[in-house]
Automatic annotation (TrEMBL):
Domain Deacetylase sirtuin-type as annotated: residue spans: 1-253
Alphabetized GO MF terms: histone deacetylase activity, NAD-dependent; metal ion binding; NAD+ binding
Its EC number(s): 2.3.1.286
Gene3D superfamilies noted in UniProt: SIR2/SIRT2 'Small Domain (3.30.1600.10), TPP-binding domain (3.40.50.1220)
Residue positions binding Zn(2+): 133, 136, 154, 157
Upper classification of the organism: Bacteria, Pseudomonadati, Spirochaetota, Spirochaetia, Leptospirales
Protein name (record): protein acetyllysine N-acetyltransferase
Keywords of the record: Metal-binding, NAD, Transferase, Zinc
Superkingdom of origin: Bacteria
Active site: 125
Amino acid sequence: MQTTIEQAARLFLEQDNILVITGAGISADSGLPTYRGVGGLYNTGQTEEGYAIEDILSIDMFERRPELTWKYLLELEKSSRGRRPNAAHETLAYLEKKKKRLWVLTQNVDGFHHMAGSEKLVEIHGNLHRLSCTVCEHEEERDDYIGLELPPACPQCAGLIRPQVTLFGEALPYEATRVYEREMNRGFDCVVVIGTSAVFPYIYGPVVEAARHGIPTLEINPDRTELSKIVRHFLPGRAAESMLAIRRIVDEANS
């Protein structure tokens, strides 16, 4: 059974400890292509060099041919250049300030949740706009990669610079994992999934666990996914319009 906006908004009104899990779909309304599927950057699965995109964006390729990995990291950055957080990102940041505890766990590396003002945020795959040296402790933040010579060299030691994102074949970042595990152990009253098919176990795991213990779960997506069979509530729709409508109802109820 499909869920209405009013039912979805009731979860945000009634629950105090909320986990929101987001994927590429939440940034689609900012004009970003999703990683796969309709409008995806790499629908064919093959790059012009003949490699799968997962191989190009792997730690093994980065160590062997950093210029090739950086070529496609640049393409990812270009796809978000000049874009801004949309109403879904902004609503989550707004609701965080209204709720006792609202955490966002995102797979996205575009940095939009941070830009929108979310503070209780786990960027489990990192952030394209944070760069660090692979040799020394140099770090920097960049709005974009304009003027960046690829592959970039560290201004301090001339070592290889990389973005602080998780490449294929690489362990998840320690600090993000530590926060993730800490908050999962604390538990949540409600788990909401927005714009992701949740193929990674650390993404779908909280949804499965919540459903198993009778904790309310909500998915917001234009189309059904494998998670739709698990969640209690499924709200068909795009992220921005759905979250904006939810915000209106929450504000009316609290006015």
